[in-house]
Model the fold of this input.
Amino acid sequence: MWTTTDWEHLVTGAHAVGAAAQKLTPLGKQLELFDGDHVVAPGIDARWAAGHTPGTTVFVLSSGSERAVLLGDVVHSPMQFGEPDWTVVWDVDPQSPSDCMADCLACQGISLSGQAT
Done:
């Protein structure tokens, strides 16, 4: 699964990234593309969180009253959990990941996970 927005941004659009397009094009027939918020399966929701790329997505895992948010490229370093307004130079919209982090950190009882860099 991948967002149509990111597929167009990185692979097929006017400003596609050559290396990304070359590596990802062969996977195109195997991907299910979606846009916006999307239910992946019961208890797994994809939520649009553009900023790192135009189609950045976070995944919310739910079970009963418990939730975990997989932030992916919204966060690039564990330091950003303590400083959610820190950004990285390769975000296409640096403010959006900061807003997403601040929103997530304001929620009580939610486990957060970012990518390991």
Remarks:
- The mean pLDDT is 83.
- Residues 3 and 96 are 17 Å apart (CA to CA).
- The longest strand covers residues 57-63.
- The beta strands are 2-3, 33-34, 38-41, 44-48, 57-63, 66-72, 110-114.
